[in-house]
UniProtKB/TrEMBL annotation:
Belongs to the glycogen phosphorylase family. Its EC number is 2.4.1.1. This is Alpha-1,4 glucan phosphorylase. It comes from Setophaga kirtlandii. The gene is Pygl. Pfam families: Phosphorylase.
Length: 764
């Protein structure tokens, strides 16, 4: 979520009043804002997307709730020591959190372990361990519409009789100390992005948030007029018409068997009725196609922790496979491929398959990704129910990612096209008529220059590095992962360095290359990549021949509040994942909206950005998905590129020989070995096209006016990438609710008693 103060002032229309009031007290608002800790309760794009969605849902007047875990420790703070990433605990609650309100009156029990007893009256889950879920509510204000929604985060608490009620021999002290075991559930965020780690505590977290949330939803449903018993209809007949639950990836997939357990075991609905309601309630968003990221929980772990849920999953699977067998008799391989249970060394539950079978809608997050989901990853399921599969291209909130972080540009745009674009970003197309307006071109360039100077000052103050604000700011910020190919950027830096040294007199367009992002603590290769970037920076930044022509900076502890500073200052946005690997990306959109140009592959939302702005207004290079597929068919041989490209060979040899690690020449052996022998993401295959494309970038940067005109065309084409548009599509195509742009009267005005203050419809 990042910080809340400035976002709240903007959405409430109070920023100027607050700035003035604080100034009158002899304080500086910007200084105050810097004191607030980021709420870092997610890992990367998926978590930040949820935050943008909450802002848009409130702004569109949807009765929506965001549910999650109130981690005591969020994503680790990253320190760089001697070029290595070192993790520190993110004790973000140390000074308290003024935005949250504990709601002990809504505390709920969550059960674990135990066993299942079957009788004539049905199944009973008994002898369980109980953990209490204490909700904390954070307000989510819409933009200037007097709507405030709720983000409800659950914290784990041990019940007061924990370890004291059962055959306890009287070690009272130990029993109280053991309360920590239960409360550890909400202690810390698992820091993996795009990687599945099958740990018991993680599964506990996933079930904890799901069980508490579903109880909360059902309590609210029963308390409403819709849940009241009708003499004809079952209490839950209207449930899917009043409740929509969107599964943000497979992490909350246990919600499907949990809702079935509630309906069948507790509410005593017949299976078929319960299953119909469940399917119509859930929809699933897929966020990645990387096989190592797909959740596959071991059956024996689920059996131990959630024995009744395993039985329900088996029953769901049996009925699912019976259906497939009736449609495709004797096709045992299809049954194996489509089963929720994977046989092998250890039997596992494929959570994506569970989500597809248990949902009425499945979507990818960019056109190209949704196509891959349909035709490759889940092709058997899409063949069965093509109407279930949709696309919902991701978006970003223009409140945080333009108004808040780039007020200079936001104001400049408002001067030209009015202020309405903040709620309807498609209006940015009106900027096309100013693309040849010399004054506007100069003003856009001036705002960018001011942002660069401000960021350069920040870098000098925080990191004691001096950079040249007139150089091109070439920025690559995102989680560190092989598929995102920070290594390819690194090879380009080395290539530029070698070119400067080879011919120091030759004209070179000065660059400051900024790379930032966190590596999962257990991801060895990602940590080596960070060390390599820092080792290269050490050499480049201290070579007198290079001077101020080329500087390399690794941006420590990349997070939302730092993104808000670096993105408005960026000239060139690096979006260079191997085609077919980045589901969408959202950083790409933030840079586009903030006046950076994109160098990128035809991957994720880059494809649609090129479609909106015109491919000639992005620097697109490299293999397309078809080329990658063809190269896989032929077999990727890294050695071929190394032998054919002298500059690539030189760069790789320098890494290999210890040119960047003279004290330990073998330091980067693992990296080099990977690049030659098991590079799934084909860095060498795109290197030549990337370097050539970067030459075109430098050439255009020399022509400031032509560059800025391209920037304006990009900003004018960024309207599609508002999360408001994304949420409208979810609302209409999946949740079946109508967004309302009605402004609720402010609390100081009396309401019209005759008017229903909430429009009828689903709560998402």
């Amino acid at each position: 979520m990042g910080r809340t103060l400035q976002n709240t002032m903007i959405n409430l229309g109070l920023q100027n009043a607050c700035d003035e009031a604080v100034y009158q007290l002899g304080l500086d608002m910007e200084e105050l804002e810097e004191i607030e800790e980021d709420a870092g309760l997610g890992n990367g794009g998926l978590g930040r997307l949820a935050a943008c969605f909450l802002d848009s849902m409130a702004t569109l007047g949807l009765a929506a709730y965001g549910y999650g875990i109130r981690y005591e420790y969020g994503i680790f703070n990253q320190k760089i020591r001697d070029g290595w990433q070192v993790e520190e605990a993110d004790d973000w609650l140390r000074h308290g959190n003024p935005w949250e309100k504990a709601r002990p009156e809504y505390m709920l029990p969550v059960h674990f372990y135990g066993r299942v007893e079957h009788s004539a009256s049905g199944a009973k889950w008994i002898d369980t361990q109980v953990v209490l879920a204490l909700p904390y509510d954070t307000p989510v204000p819409g933009y200037m519409n007097n709507t405030v929604n709720t983000m409800r985060l659950w914290s784990a608490r041990a019940p007061n009789d924990f370890n004291l009620r059962d055959f306890n021999v009287g070690d009272y002290i130990q029993a109280v100390l053991d309360r920590n075991l239960a409360e550890n559930i909400s202690r810390v965020l698992y820091p993996n992005d795009n990687f599945f780690e099958g740990k018991e505590l993680r599964l506990k977290q996933e079930y904890f948030v799901v069980a508490a949330t579903l109880q909360d939803i059902i309590r609210r449903f029963k308390a409403s007029k819709f849940g009241s018993t009708d003499s004809v209809r079952t209490v839950f007949d209207s449930f899917p018409d009043q409740v929509a639950i969107q599964l943000n990836d497979t992490h909350p997939a246990m919600a499907i068997p949990e809702l079935m357990r509630i309906f069948v075991d507790i509410e005593k609905l017949p299976w078929d009725k319960a299953w119909d309601i469940t399917k119509r309630t859930f929809a699933y968003t897929n966020h990645t196609v990387l096989p190592e990221a797909l959740e596959r929980w071991p059956v024996d772990l689920v059996e131990k922790l959630l024995p009744r849920h395993l039985q329900i999953i088996y029953e769901i699977n049996q009925r699912h496979l019976d259906h497939i067998a009736s449609l495709f008799p004797n096709d045992v391989d299809r049954l194996r491929r489509m089963s929720l249970i994977e046989e092998g060394d250890t039997k596992r539950i494929n959570m994506a398959h569970l989500c597809i079978v248990g949902s009425h809608a499945v979507n990818g997050v960019a056109k190209i990704h949704s196509e891959i989901v349909k035709t490759q990853v889940f092709e058997d399921f899409a063949e069965l129910e093509p109407e279930k599969f949709q696309n919902k291209t991701n978006g970003i909130t223009p409140r945080r990612w333009l108004l808040l972080c780039n007020p200079g540009l936001a104001e400049l745009i408002a001067e030209k096209i009015g202020e309405d674009y903040v709620r309807d970003l498609s209006q940015l197309t009106k900027l096309h008529k100013f693309v040849d307006d010399d004054l506007f071109i100069r003003e856009v360039a001036k705002v960018k220059q001011e942002n660069k100077v401000k960021f350069a000052l920040y870098l000098e103050k925080e990191y004691k590095v001096k950079i040249n604000p007139s150089s091109m700011f070439d920025v690559h910020v995102k989680r560190i992962h092989e598929y995102k190919r920070q290594l390819m950027n690194c090879l380009h830096i080395i290539t530029m360095y070698n070119r400067i040294r080879r011919d120091p007199a030759k004209l070179f367009v000065p660059r400051t290359v900024i790379i930032g992002g966190k590596a999962a603590p257990g991801y060895h290769m990602a940590k080596m990549i960070i060390k390599l970037i820092n080792a290269v920076a050490q050499v480049v930044n201290n070579d007198p021949v290079v001077g101020s022509k080329l500087k390399v900076i690794f941006l420590e502890n990349y997070r939302v509040s730092l993104a808000e500073k670096v993105i408005p200052a960026t000239d060139l946005s690096e979006q260079i994942s191997t085609a077919g690997t980045e589901a969408s990306g959202t950083g790409n959109m933030k840079f586009m909206l903030n006046g950076a140009l994109t160098i990128g592959t035809m991957d994720g939302a880059n494809v649609e950005m090129a479609e909106e702005a015109g491919e000639e207004n992005l620097f697109i290079f490299g293999m397309r998905v078809e080329d990658v597929t063809e190269l896989d068919r032929r077999g990727y041989n890294a050695q071929l590129y190394y032998d054919r490209l002298p500059e690539l060979k030189q760069a790789v040899d320098q890494i290999k020989s210890g040119f960047f690690s003279p004290k330990d020449p073998n330091l980067f052996n693992d990296v080099v070995n990977m690049l030659f022998h098991h590079d799934r993401f084909k860095v060498f295959a795109d290197y030549e096209a990337y370097v050539k494309c970067q030459e075109k970038v430098s050439e255009l940067y020399l022509n400031s006016k032509a560059w800025t005109k391209m920037v304006i065309r990009n900003i004018a084409a960024a309207g599609k990438f508002s999360s408001d548009r994304t949420i409208k599509e979810y609302a209409r195509d999946i949740w079946h609710v109508e967004p309302s742009d009605l402004k609720i009267p402010p609390p100081n005005e009396p309401r019209d008693a005759g008017q229903d203050k909430t429009p009828n419809g689903t709560a998402a």
